[in-house]
Amino acid sequence: MATGLSIGDLSARTGLAVSAIRFYETHGIVAPLRNDGGHRRYGRADIRRLSFVMAAQTLGFPLAEIAEHLKGLPAHKAPSKADWTRISTSFRVKIDARIAALTDLREKLDGCIGCGCLSLQSCALYNPQDVKGSEGAGPRNLTGLDG
Amino acid sequence: MATGLSIGDLSARTGLAVSAIRFYETHGIVAPLRNDGGHRRYGRADIRRLSFVMAAQTLGFPLAEIAEHLKGLPAHKAPSKADWTRISTSFRVKIDARIAALTDLREKLDGCIGCGCLSLQSCALYNPQDVKGSEGAGPRNLTGLDG
DNA sequence: CTAATTTCTAAAGTTAACTTGAGATCAAGG
DNA sequence: CCTTGATCTCAAGTTAACTTTAGAAATTAG
Hints:
Two copies of one chain form a homodimer. Chain A is mainly α. Chain A is built from five helices and two strands, in the order H-H-E-E-H-H-H. The first copy, chain A, starts with 6 loop residues before the first helix and ends in a 34-residue tail after the last helix. Chains A and B meet through helix 3 and helix 5 of A and helix 3 and helix 5 of B.
C-alpha cells in the first residue's frame, strides 16, 4: 500500500485512461517500477509528469516532442524549479509564435472579408506564402507548430 | 485543351499532390467532370475551392468541416461575394476564439514560470479545467478547435 | 506511329495517439 | 479459500489525411 500508486490510481488521479498510461510508457514518458507480481508501481512524481504531458498536449505539442523535453528531467523525481523554468519558458516562446501567426492570419482575413476574393492574385488567404507541403503519409500537422 | 484543366494542371496550380486532389474528391470537396477518355476535367473555380481548403487547413479546420462549408457553395462556380463573406466571417470568429484561448494559456504560464510548480493544487497549467477527454480511438484533436 | 507521360481505379500502407480484445495472472474482500 | 476485479502482455483496430503501388488505358511529344 505504501509501495506506490497502481496504474488505476494514476488513472484516477490524472483522468487519463489506463491504456493511455501504458502507451505513454512505450514512448518513454513514464518508467514505473514493478512489484513482485509484475504490476506497475508509480511514484508521486509521475502524476506530475503526466499532468505535464496533458498540459503540453493542449498546447498542441506532439508526444514525441514532449517526450524529448521529459528526457531532461530526473526519471523518478519531480522536476526541480530550474527544470520547470526551462521547460515553461520554452513553452512560452512557442505560444507566442502561435499567437503571432494567428494574429497575422486574422489581419489577412480582415482584408479579405470585404473583397469578395475575386482576385486570386491579390488575396493573401488564397496565397499563403508559407505553405510547406509536408512530406510522406500520415496526418498533416494542422497548426504548423513544429520548429 | 479548352475543355478544362487536367488533374496535373490543378496540382501544379495549387501545389497539392495529384493523389490529394483525388482524395478530396472522395470527400466531396471537388466534383470534376470527365472527358471522353474518362480523365477528370476541372474548371477554374476548382482552383479556388482547393485554395480555400488549403487556407482552412492552415487554420486547423478538419477536412470534414471544410467540406461542410463547401456544400453551401455552387458546385462548379466560384463562390459569390456573399458566399465568401459568410465563410470568411465564420473563420474570423474561430480565429478569434483560438487567439483568446492561447492568450489565456500564456497568462497562466506566466504565472507558472517563476513558481517552480511545486503545488499541484495551485498550478493552473497542471489543472486545466477544460480537458475534455475525447472518446474512442484515433488521433486526438490537438487544438481543441471544434465547436 | 511509337515512345514517354499522365491518368485511371482499387487496394493497401503510413503516422499519431490511442483503444479494444483475448487469454492469463495478480490482488483484495468476505 | 474462493470469487470478483484489477493488471499483465501482445496483437489488432481506429481516425484523419493522405501516399504508394500495381496494372491498365488515355494523352502527348517527337
